[in-house]
Amino acid sequence: MKDPTPSPGREGARAVRDRRRNRRPSLMSRIRGSVWGGVEGILGADLLWSGALIVLVVLAVGGQRCGHEYEQFLVGQDAPRDIKAVKDFEFIDARSTDDARQHAVDQVFEIYEYHTGRRVQLARQCSELFEQGRQLLLGAAPDGESAQELVAQELGDRLSPAALSALVRHRFDSGLERDMTSVLTIVLGGKVVASKDVLVREDKITLRTFPGEGSETLENFDEFIDLEQARAAVKLRLAERLSLPAAEERVLGSLAASFVDTNVNLDSVATDQQRQEARHSVRSVIQRFRQGDVLARAGEPLTQDIIDRLQAAGRKSNAPLGLQGFMGLLFLAAMFAFFIYRYTRFHQRHFRKIKNLHALIVLMVITMLALSSAILWLARGIVDNLTYPFNQLDAYAYLIPLGAGAILVTLLANGRIATVYSAFAAFLFGAANDWNAHQMVWAMLVQCAGVYAISAYRERAALLRAGLVVGGAGALMTMALEALRDPPEPFSYAAYAAGLAFIGGAIGVGLLISFALPMLERLFNVLTDIRLLELSNVNNPLLSELAMRAPGSYNHSLVVGTLAEEAARAIGANALFCRVAAFYHDIGKINKAEYFVENQRGVNPHDRLSPSMSALIIASHVKDGIKMAREAGLPEQIVDIIPQHHGTKLMTYFYEKAKSNTDPSLGPVKEEDFRYPGPKPQTREAAIFMLADAVEAAARTIDEPTANRLREMIRKITNSIVLDGELDSCDMTFVDLERIQQAFLRTMTSMYHQRVDYPGFDFRQPKGEAKAQRPETGAEAKTAELGDRKLVRGS
Asked: What share of the chain is helix, strand, coil (3-state, %, to 5)?
């Protein structure tokens, strides 16, 4: 019989489905697909990556010579033989450089400033005193005692009582003023310093005359007088001019001397600045030696200068490679690239987390070697003008954050692969640094510390802890390796190198990982635990919208996440991925939440639709979920779960309803019209989701979920999915299925356990009453067997 419900019908639904499947992608989608197709092609070009690695190794190691080292000598030791330079080289003579710079500093004399206008200022101060006194006397009463009191009130803090009495008695005479200012001007016309004894200790001084009369270098200081001499001169000259009682002359002489001040002063700031400029203007003293020059003669006691020269010769003694050396290096580089290729190809067969493992390993090796060269190049440019141990270029190799490469490979692949990568990277690092065995060992150990530090990543703070572990381990290993040198470097060098190692690990590793990890995740399409933990935040806008618009589906997702996580842990799958992916597997229900029974509140819109249209709406949440997930930037691994957790399962309820409501004369109802579009689960994690999703939905149909009933339900749901062929495309075994069922049973038993009754409260109702009060929907009327209600849910 025909379905009386007005609907597009089965043929209309099929046409809509066909149009959606045949819809051409947008221009941006095609461009994005082309770009990523090109990137995939480059990442998969193993020959290209091997060639790039060979070129890098030749460039990085080609300037080094393996096997030639100068002996290590001690100061005072006799040279055992004539030691000659094996090639032309030059080095910075630190001692000669310091001597030259000290000589330049010694040529900068103390700078004194001579202010010629100072005498005018001091004479004006004296005149202002007399002028102020005369003004006070004009405003005072004729009584002399009253006048003196008024002047004392205003000028008492600047004048002694004797000087005040004398000036009042002479009524601040202008003639007396002229004598005093004239004497001050004459005496201060010379060069007055605070202490001539300090001045004469200098061989020479630079005298700058202000304002704007230039500067001169003086070595004769006869024309200078100190402050006490200048005051005595003022008193003497003033006494010669005045014809007053001796007591008054002494008082007025002391007054005039109080205005005397220095007009030549030391400018220590300008002196220090010029000395620093002189020091920095002297270039490093470079000594040049030609091949065959004798660096130390047999029997000659070795000084620190000679040892520095030998060490410089040892660092620069790598002669250019000839044809034979180049061919040998090329062979070594080719074998190096070959073994990396063979290892990654062998491991790739059973490793699905990352598709282009060879490209990742080579890219990390190239990046870390390029970073090492860049840091050492920068250090080489700034250490010349530093003092020991800051001018030791070898120490800056410990600043390189090598541990970051090992940590990145661990996060993107696993610890085993990262350890192998560390061995390759450590060998190249030591070879590129003058075949330094100490640094080769340090590089290997510090990278192993990084692998160990990040192997148990479960929270965001682990990156900080990993950096601190790498920094601390690198510092300790630096101290240990430097102590093994013969002879050992001074402790200051080892301490400075250890400090650089700690900074490179604690700070450099964290910064480099934070910058590089998101790009590498996107480039290699890898979903790391860091990204999963970021997505696990339930405050994510997508999850918040799901919780608000489809609360039943949100709750269902949380429960499925718990089941999937426990099942994944039981069979050794990625439990964190299962928990996080469960949050997003049903986000497509946001658009049509009311069509899914867990979100309905007594009204079922499917009662007004044909079965084919209902099936089309239910299946559309997969397509909507994929679109929303990609728009939100979710990783493709999580996007793949959305269609795969349904696979190609049959929506049994709508299929049976269509068969019962359709006129047989129109032909049989096609089963494929009521199946999800697929694909079937491709991974164990996707298979776990399919099982957890179906089991969680079926559990809600059990009135009294005891352990036996839950066990029987889980077994039936699992068997039906297996018999339907939904797990044929993943590597799930029957042992895995058994463990998954046990994990489901443990988890669901704890979820649906019996609770004690609350005294005084009876929340139970007779089953008949409950059924009478509950509005029955058309979708719920056909849930006679386990799993049918699940199909109505469309989850």
From this structure: 65, 5, 30
Cα gap 699→717, rounded to integer Å: 10
611-631 and 636-644 helices cross at what angle (nearest 10)?
Answer: 170
- Interacting residues of 649 by C-beta distance below 8 A, sequence separation 6+: 675, 676, 690, 721, 724, 726, 791
- List, for residues 260-311, the tens digit of each pLDDT value: 888 888 888 888 888 888 888 888 888 887 767 777 887 888 887 777 777 7
Closest CA to 628 of 642, 618, 615: 642
Query: What is the DSSP code (8-state) at residue 606?
Result: G
Phi and psi torsions of 218, nearest 5°: -120, 140
State the pairing for strand pair 264-266/286-289: unpaired
Is residue 206 classed as helix, strand or coil in its secondary structure?
strand
What contacts 487, CB < 8 A, 6 or more positions away?
Answer: 72, 74
Distance CA 575, CA 375 (A): 40
Q: Where are the alpha helices (DSSP H) in 484-571?
A: 491-503, 510-524, 529-535, 541-549, 551-571
Q: Amino acid identity, residue 461? A: A
**pTM over 0.85, yes/no:** no
Buried b (16+ CB within 10 A) or exposed e, 233-256: bbbebbbeebebeeebbbbbbbbb
Instruction: Evaluate whether 305 touches 74 at the Cβ level (below 8 Å).
Output: no
Tell me the CB-side half-sphere exposure of residue 610, using CA atoms within 13 A: 24
